[in-house]
Specification:
With about 210 residues, the chain is an alpha+beta fold. It has 5 helices and 9 strands. It starts with a strand and ends in a 10-residue tail after the last strand.
C-alpha cells in the first residue's frame, strides 16, 4: 500500500483553453460560477491535479460523486482527497480511504468544539508564539485529515478524538488509521497532513 501526495501552486495556474479541456464538465461549470479570479484558479488547480493523477489514468470514469459530508470519489479509481490553503492545492491518492489537509501557519485560536481536552491542555502548556502555533497546526491538520478520511469532515464528534500523543488511531469498528505530517518544500510556513486506513498493523510505504 502506498500513498502519494501532490501539490499545485495556485499562482502558477493559467486558465486557457488547454487547461479547460483537462477539466471535467462538473468542474468547468463550477469554475465559471466563481466571480473572483483567485477562486477560479483554485478550482482549476484542483481540477488539474485530478486530471494528472486520477482522470487521465481512468478516462472511462469521469463522474465524481459526493457523500453526505461532501467527500468526493470516482468509481473504480483510487481513493483521493483534496485540500487547499492560500497558495496551494493538495491532492492525496491512496488504495485505501484517505483524507488530507494543508494549512498555512497562523495565530493559534483554541476551540473547545474541535479539540480534545488533552489537546487543549497540551497547547495551553506551550509558550505562546511559533512553538504553540506550530503544534496547533499539527493537531488541526491531523484532525481535519482524519475526519475527512473517515468521511465526516469537522463535526460535533471532532473533540472526541485525541491526537496529542499519537499519530495512529483505532476505531470501534476495528479500523486502524495512520497520520503523516509533511512540510512543503521551499514553503516552511505550510504544513500538510495525510491520514489513511491501514489494512494491517504493519509498516506502511510512503512516497512523495
Amino acid at each position: 500500500m502506498a500513498v502519494q501526495i501532490y501539490y499545485q501552486l495556485i499562482r502558477d495556474i493559467v486558465i486557457d483553453e488547454q487547461l479547460l479541456s483537462m477539466l471535467q464538465p462538473q468542474r468547468r461549470k463550477q469554475l465559471f460560477s466563481f466571480r473572483l479570479e483567485s477562486d477560479q484558479k483554485r478550482c482549476a488547480a484542483a481540477g488539474l491535479l485530478l486530471w494528472k493523477h486520477i482522470y487521465h489514468k481512468h478516462p472511462e470514469h469521469f463522474t465524481v460523486s459526493y457523500n453526505a459530508s461532501g467527500k468526493p470519489s470516482v468509481a473504480n479509481a483510487p481513493f483521493f482527497n483534496l485540500s487547499h490553503s492560500n497558495d496551494f492545492v493538495m491532492l492525496a491518492v491512496s488504495d485505501t480511504p484517505v483524507g488530507c489537509d494543508i494549512e498555512k501557519l497562523h495565530k493559534t485560536v483554541l476551540s473547545h468544539h474541535v479539540f480534545h481536552p488533552n489537546e487543549l491542555d497540551a497547547l495551553s502548556n506551550l509558550p505562546s508564539g511559533d512553538i504553540q502555533n506550530h503544534e496547533f497546526l499539527r493537531l488541526w491538520t491531523a484532525k481535519e485529515a482524519f475526519l475527512k478520511a473517515i468521511g465526516t469532515g469537522i463535526d460535533a464528534k471532532a473533540s472526541s478524538y485525541d491526537f496529542s500523543k499519537s499519530n495512529t488511531i483505532s476505531l470501534d469498528d476495528g479500523s486502524f488509521w495512520k497520520l503523516e505530517h509533511h512540510t512543503v518544500c521551499d514553503f516552511p510556513d505550510y504544513l500538510s497532513c495525510v491520514c489513511y486506513k491501514c489494512l494491517q498493523y504493519k509498516e506502511i510505504s510512503f512516497t512523495l
